[in-house]
Amino acid sequence: MQVYIEPIGRLINEFSKLPGVGKKSAQRYAYKIIGMSDSEAQEFAAAILNVKKKVKYCKVCGNFTENDVCDICKERDKRTICVVKEPKDVIALEKLHEYKGVYHVLHGVISPMEGIGPDDIRIRELLARLNEGGVEEVIVATNPDVEGDATAMYLARLIKPLGIKVTRLSRGIPIGSELEYTDDVTLSRAFIERKEV
Amino acid sequence: MQVYIEPIGRLINEFSKLPGVGKKSAQRYAYKIIGMSDSEAQEFAAAILNVKKKVKYCKVCGNFTENDVCDICKERDKRTICVVKEPKDVIALEKLHEYKGVYHVLHGVISPMEGIGPDDIRIRELLARLNEGGVEEVIVATNPDVEGDATAMYLARLIKPLGIKVTRLSRGIPIGSELEYTDDVTLSRAFIERKEV
């Protein structure tokens, strides 16, 4: 006889697929769901289906949006493009309320170790945006690690010949850490003190 | 402008309702869902709805079941009843494969601090089972904390006059800890060395 009855085992298995969630946490989450009212559980399930149905990638910057083009691309100053690795990095920067320009989400960084080259991330799309003109500065806000630095160097060599300023967040960010987990003050400072590559 | 678009914010909010899940973890879980295929996300949502639809409480012991009466109550030796606080405690004990009797889940313990009295937990149902006859021993496996001990003492005073042996898990379990988190060896020993109250 198995320890869990089938519906509970199945839900625990689903929760175990979430990042950093072990069997014990997954069990606790499953019991929480069992203890919810029917309408609460339905809300939860609907939120999962809803996010899959409604969330798309912005055709311009690659960030999450409910429309073809995201609100940031529609409303903000297009003279500056801040290049980040992932959508969660946009969230980290937006929380500061410092930056007034637009973004470009690469959905990855160049990583020879993992076999990810320039063509595997959204660099072509970035160049297309730059070729449309009007961009004065590209801020490369990839993580301050080997892959992030390599990507920044690659972009600088590509973009500078176009006569566009390329900057990188200043090295107030602790080396080897992830942008998402940098505290706001450090991140804010790094943004203000960004330096031309 | 809010930081998250509505469907993502809504899903993060749902994940934040799970025990021990903060905003950062909830965001990570939400991004994981966004990165899933449609069918994977549908499976996840279905598992949540399924658990609410299928999981009921056993009419006899109060444990989780898909039927009116759980498999343990149907198949196992009814001369011994092991009394626990919550369904997750049944899981912790079943993992040992030591115990061959049945369970009784109280769904709580007596706690004057929280205003929970004997009538608020499934003690009446336990007495009804005992009055049907055939039970030789009641093992009280509530947590070894103040409320668990108080509940055990209360049950012992109630059940002993019926001529039924009442035992409690031996004090190998670290005091103040929770049964669910006790390591298997300690828990197994405590089970074997259970003592009459």
What does this molecule look like?
Two copies of one chain form a homodimer. With 197 residues, the first copy, chain A, is an alpha/beta fold. In chain A, 43% of the residues lie in helices and 14% in strands. Chain A contains eight helices and seven strands. In chain A, the strands form two sheets. In chain A, strands 4-3-5-6-7 form a five-stranded mixed sheet. A two-stranded antiparallel ribbon of chain A has the order 1-2. In chain A, helix 1 (6-15) crosses helix 2 (23-35). The longest helix of chain A has 17 residues, at 38-54. The radius of gyration of chain A is 21 Å and the shape is elongated. At the A-B interface, helix 1, helix 2, helix 3, strand 2 and helix 5 of A face helix 1, helix 2, helix 3, strand 2 and helix 5 of B.
Summarize the biggest pleated sheet of chain A.
Answer: 5 strands, mixed
What characteristic shape of chain A results from the CA principal axes?
elongated
**Secondary structure tally, helices of chain A:** 8
Structural class of chain A: alpha/beta
Strand tally of chain A, please? 7
Distance between the termini of chain A: 63 Å
In terms of per-residue confidence, which ranges of chain A show pLDDT below 50 for 5 or more consecutive residues?
none
The ordered H/E elements of chain A are: HHHEEHEHEHEHEHE
- Average predicted local confidence, pLDDT of chain A: 91
User: Greatest interface and its residue counts?
Assistant: A-B, 53 and 53 residues
Strand order of the largest sheet of chain A: 4-3-5-6-7
Multimer state: homodimer
Helical amount of chain A: 40-55%
Please state roughly what percent of the residues of chain A sit in beta strands, choosing from under 5%, 5-15%, 15-25%, 25-35%, 35-45% or over 45%: 5-15%
Radius of gyration of chain A: 21 Å
